[in-house]
Amino acid sequence: MSPWMLRCVFFCLFSGMALGGLFLLFKMLRLLFGLGKWSVALLDFLYCCLCALAVFLCALAVDKGRLRFLQAGLQLAGWLGVVFAFDPFLSGAARCLYRGGKRLGSFFSRQRALARRCVLSWAKRGRARKKLRQNRKRA
After folding, report:
1. Between the CA atoms of 92, 98, 99 and 101, what dihedral angle is there, to the nearest 10 degrees?
2. Mean pLDDT across the stretch 98-124?
3. Is the pTM of this model over 0.85?
4. Is the CB of residue 80 less than 8 Å from the CB of residue 20?
5. How far apart are CA 45 and CA 61, in angstroms?
């Protein structure tokens, strides 16, 4: 195997790994922000366009624009390697972060409601004291 061919093999493998990492990044965005159907469709479309561009540029670099089975197979192997290796960990981490964010939000909303009740009761007591003072002055 020539040194040029070896470089092409590693280039195709690493570009497939980069595409797999991009897939996981988009999946994390979906899971963290709880996006709706339209935003998921937009992210999927954007990912497909980026993949098509990356495969085309890789084909240009490897063999003057012709897509070879070696290139496609190595990119697929790199993509599968990254997705199968990191997907369970990243999906679990994204779900935990999403749930933690919801819990943190509910904690702060409870604290905000408690503070509001305290301020309102303090304001009511202040008005009641003011009325009491006015009544004492009249008597």
Report:
1. 140
2. 70
3. no
4. yes
5. 24
